[in-house]
Write a structure and sequence with these properties.
The protein is of the alpha+beta class. Helix 1 packs antiparallel against helix 2. The protein has a five-stranded antiparallel sheet, with no helix packed on it. The N and C termini lie far apart (75 Å). The chain has four helices and five strands. Helix content is 53%, strand content 23%.
Amino acid sequence: MFKKLDKLVIKAFVGPFVAVFFITLLVLIMQFFWLYIDDFVGKGLGTGVIFEFIWYQSAALVPLALPLAVLLSSLMTFGNLGETMELVAIKSSGISLLRFMRPVFVVSLFICGIAFLFSNYIIPVANLKSKTLLADIVYAKPAFDLKEGIFYDKIEGVAIKVGKKEADSIIRDVIIYERGPYNLQDNFIIAKSGIMRVTPNKRYLEFNLKDGWRYQERGDRLNPNTDFIRIGFREYK
C-alpha cells in the first residue's frame, strides 16, 4: 500500500523522467538523422517518407533512452529532495535510505517490464517496416545507398564509385570494377555520367552509362600473351 512518502517520491520522479526520456530520445534521433541527412535531403524524397522512416527508427532507440532517463531522473529526483531539505526531514523521522528509495525501485522495475514488452513486440515490427520502406526507396532510387567518393561493394561482382549523385538516380564521374572468377583482372569502366534503375521485375540493377571507356584484358592465365582491349562509348548498358 502506497503511503504519502511513496506518492511524494514518485511524483518527484515522474516529471523529470518524462522530460529526460523525451530529451534523450530526441538527441538519439538527431544523432541518427545527422548520420543519414546527406542521403535524405535533396534526393527527391518526400517529407512524409523521411519522417516515416525516422519514426520507425526511433522505436529501436526507445530501449536506449529508457535507462538513461531512469538514471538521470533518479539523480534529479533525490537531488531536488536534498536541495529542499526533504531528505533531511525524512532521515530525521527515522526512515531508512532504502525505504524512501523503494518507490523508485518499483517504478524502475515497471519500466523494465515495459521495455521488455516493447523490445519483444514493437521493435521487430518497426524494424520490418523500416527495412521495407528502405527497400522501396532503393528500388525507386537505386543510387540512394551509394556514398559519393566511396566504393560500394554490396553488389555481387561489382564495385562502384560515383563522384556525385543527383535526383532520380543520376550518377556522375562513375568508376565500375567488374570482378569475375575467370577474368585475368577486373574489368574497368569509367563514365562521365549515367543512370541507375531497377528492372521492372526488381531482380536486376541496370546501368545506362554515357561518355566513357571500358578496359578489359582477355586471354589465358597461363599464357603471358594477352589482349588488352579499350572501348570508348557514347552510351553503354
